[in-house]
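User: Sequence in, structure out. Go.
Assistant: Echoing your sequence, followed by the structure tokens.
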Amino acid sequence: MSESHPHMQPVNNPNVPSRSSYQMLQGDRTFAELELLPGATFVDLGCGPGDYTIRAAEATGANGRVFAVDRNAEALATLRTKKAQLGLENITILEQDLCDPLPIDGNSADVALICTVLHHPAMRSRSAGLFANVRNLLKPEGRLVVVEMHKKEMPFGPPLHIRIAPDELEPQVRAQGLQRTGYIDLGYVYLMRFSPV
């Protein structure tokens, strides 16, 4: 899973270029909603080429910890190059499936992000494992932030039938011990916040 993927393509307008979801979907606004503080621990699940990862590493600083998790080797190679170029030593890159147990200490993360990942068909039947992983790694006061595209027609993005609406998402997350604490409509996408019960 990654931020830049074949589902995030124009579906009706061939003149719209292929870009990462950060560039297309108000990434700066979404990042601001993470409310990352210096020294925080942040987990980017389905990080792709690392747009949010890089911003988080800069925001959390030398005392922060950033974990970037994805199974797309090509995307992670791009992130490794960015990490080296910028000298960001607080990033740990993990090449693995998001639904497998994560080699991150439990109760250690302040914020976890899952951005435009859950609509992937491969995730639909396995999301419980992902949310259980998140519940395990979050601090009691930690937050999960999920960003997905609205389930409505628009000029780009994944096919409508594989998108996940907020009222479909919330029960799946709640079943793994996380309760909704916020919702924001960002136009093409929505952002939901969850915290451990």
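User: And one key feature?
Assistant: The two ends are 27 Å apart (CA to CA).
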